[in-house]
Amino acid sequence: MKDKLLWFVGFEKQKYTIALSGLNTEPSTAYQNAALDLLTTYNVPESPISQALMSNLWPSYINPLLAQPSNYFATNPSLGYSYNGVIKLDYNINVKHHLSGRWFGGQGSQTAPTGGSAALATASSNLNYYFEKAPIHVYNYAVTLNSVLTPRMTNQLLAGVNYFNQVFRDAVANYDTHTNAQLFLSPDTPVTPKFFGAPNIRISGFEQIGITPPEGRNDITGMLADVISYNVGKHQLRFGGEYRQAHLNEFYFFHSLGKFIFDGTQGPWYDATTQTCAASDTNVCSLADFLSGRVSNSAIDVGDAERKIVVNALDFFGSDSWQVTPKLNVNLGLRWDYFGPLHNGSKDIAVFIPGRGIQIQGAGLDGIFKKNLKDFSPRVGFAYQPSSRGDVVVRGGFGIYFDQINVNPFMDVRPPNNADGVQDNPAGPSPVSIYTANTAGQTSYTWQPGQYIFNPVQLCPSGNVAIDPTCGSSVFDVYSVNQNFHTAYFYNYNLNVQKSFANGAAVWQIGYVGSGGRRLSVLLNINQPIDSAGTLPFAGQYPNFGAINQLNSLGTSNYNSLQSTLRLRAWHGISSEFGYTWSHSLDEITAYRGVIPFDSYNLKADYGNSDFDVRHTFTGSISWEVPGSSHGPKALTHGWVVTSVLSFHGGPPGDQVRPGIDIIGDPFAGVSHSFFKHPDGTAGVQWINPNSFSLTPSCGQITSDGRCYGTLRRNQVYGPGFKDVDLGVSKRFDLTERMKLNIKAEMFNLFNTINYASGYGPFGYGSGVISDTIGDWNGAPGLGPGEAFATVLSAKITF
Angle at Cα 473 formed by Cα 472 and Cα 479, nearest 5°? Predict the structure, then answer.
């Protein structure tokens, strides 16, 4: 309808194949023969389970590899595609009311390495069988009504719905280990295609397999918001509120197929006295353990961990932008937030409460934590122009901001022990039992074909076999949420000065930015042993419970920084922006997932540099519209643009928790940080000097269970920094008045700088060697940030 309706439709299709490379050690035929020779020497039979798994869970292309470390150089590509569409509708009802609608739909899939993420407690694999396959569907709907109610008052009403669905699985997961390999896990482990595929098998010295079990999430979130704006005199007032409700279906079957570790210490080829292996290559002993079926330790989650939950959120706010004088503007605001605890009507959310055992939400327990109705957050800010020229502006602000915690810390924690979330407690209509011992109560054993390794699901809500005989002799790790759990909040404060030069051609800003976090989420093992004998504090009341992970709101953080930016606008066709930040961040625990403090009874012992603490950061972007030349054809001499992006920053530290070792010297003494490559193919950089650390720490301070704190503080040693310069050159061709062609060449990591992996995990204090790059370490090898020099050519037609 003319002058009434405007519409836009867009569609995009992407399909990619990214060449990857990686180096690791695989159990080749030569390695298997060496391990089988050990079995023959010690008259140990090969396990038929292991034989079947070896033949079917590893790809055949590893068989010809040599029997030596780093025998596999991988070239398996990452694959993916996406289809995305958007529809925009804008309709003028009349001069006072305007209606707009938006729809976005996207679906796709990628098959790629996961990256060695500490936060997700995942490993990565160079075998394409164990790339992660992750199909995704996303749809978003939004309708907005903007209305002019009076000359001074407007209203915006917004309604929206977002749909998200994504599943994760190993790329190849079609082998039925139960039927074909006679690997019987538990009577309650489903024998269906959803649960086919490799268990998580970790053979020391080799790349692990079975990395991604059946996992995924489906959620539908609806929201309704309304904002009223009202101008009166020197005041611009805004009032509003928003209601959100999310329906989530979480199905993270973590360790549902079992985790089995073979470390080379279980067979007669290992001398426990001297702690040596009969083979010169310890990998052979580890593989011999696997081929003979000798499990060092294991774990499994048995039961239905799928949960459908509802989460509500509500907020109201009011603000006033007050033009006190022509030079001074003050902003005042107040906000109230409510973030409700997750719940459902199925009565299958189980939470441990000290003194009460495991309780069920909706069956005697209103919520898994108490509702918080006092989350008020005031904000104040100002902008002041001290001079009449208007070329200097002083700005400052202070505010309190509440942060809604996501579902992961409640339902997919992935801790170092086995208490993974409220979905994995042994109680309720859908109990889950987590076992770390077999049916005979053994943590180390030899698996046998056709014999169940683990017990079926057992109910144990009381944690005491004397009360619940169904607990049996099993010991369960369980999950708890502190009943005084509170919403995290942050103090944010800043003060900066902005100065313009040459009538705005250049703008420089410098200022202080800081924040303080309070009531941050921290996971504690409240059943940590209280003595070196391993006595558990809850053993008397809950003898069938082992680790008890409790989600608490006890963490604090502090961030302080000096931040500066410089912007140049259109000087001889050059526009640029540069930024520098000098900062320091501290906390007890940074990761909200997968981490428990060194000592759960002394959280402050872990207070130190944050995991992401980077002291110096410099960024820059430059764009130059090259002036056209009067010589030569205009089609070739005009329309050129050169761009560049610069990124330099220091490295983050290397721990998540206190490591429990001593520092006895300068970590970087005698270390050149030069890249090396040995004849056996191993390569990397000696980042720290291992002789500067003692892995047997002094015991000036010890934990309740007798572990020594050591003198090395959490995150005291920093990893490598990052350097990257990118360059782009583009040329525009005017094909017709309405049609244009843009050809672009982009060069990433122009100087081919080696950016080593940094953060938690890339180097250990025993060796101090980093043998990976940052992109590959984070699951984006080849084309990830800081990876090897690469060029991308593209062409785009607009009409």
Answer: 85
pTM for this predicted structure: 0.89
The predicted-structure confidence for 446-485, as pLDDT tens digits, reads as follows 999 999 999 999 999 999 999 999 999 889 999 999 999 9
Asked if 618 and 649 count as a contact pair (C-beta separation under 8 A), the reply is yes
How many other CB atoms sit within 10 Å of the CB of residue 588? 20
Say if strands 476-481 and 545-571 run parallel, antiparallel, or are unpaired. parallel
β 722-734/545-571 pair status: unpaired
pLDDT per residue as tens digits for the range 409-427: 998 888 888 888 999 999 9
CB count within 10 Å of CB 691 equals 12
Contact assessment for residue 102 and residue 78, using Cβ atoms and an 8 Å cutoff: no
Listed in sequence order, the DSSP H helices in 234-281 are none
Q: What does the alpha-carbon distance between residue 717 and residue 759 come to, in Å, rounded to a whole number?
A: 10
Query: Could you read off the pLDDT of 354-377 as tens digits, one per residue?
Result: 999 999 999 989 899 999 999 999
Helix 48-57, helix 282-291: angle, nearest 10: 110
- Name the one residue in this structure whose structure tokens are 């040459």: 502
Query: Using CA atoms, how far apart are residues 130 and 58, in angstroms rounded to an integer?
Result: 9
Angstrom distance (rounded) from CA 90 to CA 105:
18
Nearest Cα to Cα of residue 204 among 318, 130, 131, 295: 295
Q: What is the mean pLDDT of residues 2-16?
A: 89
Burial class (CB in 10 A: 0-12, 13-18, 19+), 794: exposed
Residue 225 amino acid letter = A
In the block, tokens 């035929």 appear at 29
Q: What angle do CA 256, 259, 264 make, to 5 degrees?
A: 170
Angle between helices 29-41 and 282-291 (to 10 degrees): 80
CB-CB contact of 415 with 549 (8 Å): yes
Q: What is the DSSP letter of 629?
A: -
Distance (Å, rounded) from C-alpha 342 to C-alpha 666?
48
For residue 783, what pLDDT is reported?
62
Rg for the chain, CA atoms, rounded? 30
In the numeric block, which tokens belong to residue 156?
């915006």
Please tell me the distance from the alpha carbon of residue 455 to that of residue 417, in angstroms, as a whole number: 19
What pLDDT sits at residue 1?
A: 62
